[in-house]
Amino acid sequence: MSIFLRILFVIIGLFLVLNWGLIMAGIIRKIIARLGMRRGIKIFQPYINLVKNYSIRSQLSHGVMFYLGPVFRLSGGVGIFLFMPLIYGSDLWSNFSFTGDLILIAYFMFFGMLGMALGAGEGGHPYSAIGISRGLAQFTAIEVPMTLAILSVAIQYKTLSISEIVAAQQGGILNWTVFTNPLATVAAMLSLLGAMGHSPFNVVMAPQENPIGPPTEYHGTFLGVLQTNRAILHVIEAVLYMNLFFGGATNWGVLILKTFLIYFWSVFVGMVFPRFRVDQSIPWFLKIPLVFGVAAIIIFII
Amino acid sequence: MSEKKYTTDEKFLAPENRPHTVIGPTGEEIHVDPLNDYFCQDMPKVQSPHTGIVEKFLNWARAESLWVLAYGTGCGSIELPPLFSPRFDAYRFGVMMRPTPRQSGVIIISGYLAVKTLKRAIRSYEQMQNPKYVIALGSCTINGGMYWDSYNTINRLDHYLPVDVYIAGCMPRPEAILAGFGKLKELIKSGNAEGANQYAENLQWYKDNQHKIIKDWNMPTYNW
Q: Which of A63, A160, A224, B17 is the most exposed place for a label (fewest CB within 10 A)?
């Protein structure tokens, strides 16, 4: 297949993922509102917010790194997308996936956070550094069980290619990693709660509770870029989990259904449980999910 | 904003904002004047809107996505939290609270404004980015209300910030505030809510009024 056709399909795929991310955010907020006996926002409110943020007339910057923070964040999200095979068995929707893409994607997960840290550090807000260090500390704790689960899956299928991991799970629901390697799935699904940034673990990005979160200074187009990235990132992280643990997708309908359910898992937990403080959430990740993660590795060693 | 420059009386400045000398790592002396060095000295400019259908579309988006600064003064601030409860549910009109002035487009002056609070309100308003809107809540912002002869509250908010919508009452119910949001949306969609540009255009007049009230001015002329 020519490189131009592949690039064309990557762009179309990015457009579809972005739109699904925005609509999914709207649907989820509608569900949350109905749970709270409210009518809630319009389904298309995320689009309106995006247009509004991109149309702010005056903007100010604190320096080069302040500009680059959202850019890094977006390139982190798009970077994960570029190397993620979306649809199993379709060459067109495999993006640029290659044999070692699992490692690259695990790296890109942290990339955006680091860029954001540099940008927010230059924001001039005296408490940005505190906000970002809390965020990074919690994300480091999330990464430990997540990485162990990913390694466990890689050891199980003896490959670092996401396409091959998906291929190994085909042929029935019982072939999915969730049934063949439940320990790794539990560790990964628990760390997903933190990675998606919903209730028990979202105090690091909750400017409403303490006005010191990293994006405090970001406005207008900067914020628009961050929102765009969040829409892409939520879908693409759910796609990663779908590929690793839930058998992948053979068409867009299955992809939409599975990503919605995976994302909804973090929302569901968030609606039931109140927020952890950072000093509670980090030990939590280093206890239960870590035990499952280590166990998922050990069963393949012995 | 060129005719008259206000000087900041040094006795009101916080210690870290006074001119001072810092010794660098290699022993050189660096003279720092924080108000000039750390803060942007530019004055706001009138940002002319787009024309035709583009501006109409953008105004529609701005009207349907009102991000309100979570900032309360006076008694009215207690009327704001119920707006987001199931009973009134302002979310369905696209209204949302934001914690930081950088991200918000609407500031609600919710009641009487003490001289001390006026300074904070001005700082918050000036940190918001164009386009921005002001809703004045309660009779105190219209003519002083029951505080009209008080020694430390202002009477007409209009003299200090460009108000888009007044919501009269003492206190207005949350329904009245929702109606105020509806009125603001109408103004934005018709392209008449250009408070930020009005403020930039008449900055000298607004600053004159503000300096008449605030004697201990200890911030830059315009707080970006």
A: A63
Contacts of B17 in chain A (CB under 8 A): none
Instruction: Return the structure tokens found at A28.
Output: 């989820």
Tokens of B13: 């400045």
Q: Rounded to a whole number, what is the distance in Å from the CA of A128 to chain B's nearest CA?
A: 13
pTM attached to this predicted model: 0.90
Burial of B153 (0-12, 13-18, 19+ CB in 10 A): buried
Question: What's the structural domain count of chain A?
Answer: 1
Whether residue A207 and residue B94 make contact (CB cut-off 8 A), yes or no, is no
* ipTM here: 0.90
**Structural domain range at position A28:** 3-301
If residue B209 lies in a helix (H) or strand (E), which one and from where to where? helix B203-213
For the structural domain made of B54-213, what CATH number should be given?
Answer: 3.40.50.12280
- pLDDT tens track for B105-144: 999 999 889 999 999 999 999 999 989 999 999 999 999 8
Name every chain B residue with its beta carbon within 8 A of the beta carbon of A40: 89, 91-92
The three-state secondary structure class of B84 is helix
Is the separation of the CB atoms in B111 and B153 below 8 Å?
no
